[in-house]
Amino acid sequence: MESETTIKNKFKKLWKYYLLQSLLxxxxxxxxxxxxxxxxxxxxxxxxxxxxxxxxxxxTVSAQTKNVIGGHLVGLASGAIFYFTPLPxxxxxxxxAVGIAIFIMVALDVEHPPAAGTALAVVINEVSPIDAFVIxxxxxxxxxxxxxxxxxxxxxxx
Length: 158
Prior knowledge:
Blueprint: H1 2-36, H2 41-56, H3 65-84, H4 90-108, H5 114-124, H6 129-150
């Protein structure tokens, strides 16, 4: 019961931010899908998770520009490795792409959880790694810039 009261109080206090930041995330993704096209949805889906972090948790480490862009670069590189060097079992490629992405992100201090999804999207090979690079980097930069320019207006919602 106590947690229910806490949730209600938090919602009453921040409901305008919940609404505004959710709409901003939806608008950013809408623009990305319009510009990039719906045929690249596996790659764009990683950006949905990035949008959540950027707009719902803007002050967290994962929302920082270096983590958003660096994490996705690591995910792209890890996915590309297995895109170009297929293994006998595709499920092993998928698992290793994600595992290596996580390892490198942590080692380089650019942790961004959605970037593990980027690694998976690249190795699934819906689009070429070059196309994925362009799509993900444009998306990561746009979302990072949204966070940067709105940083004084965004609140942590979680």
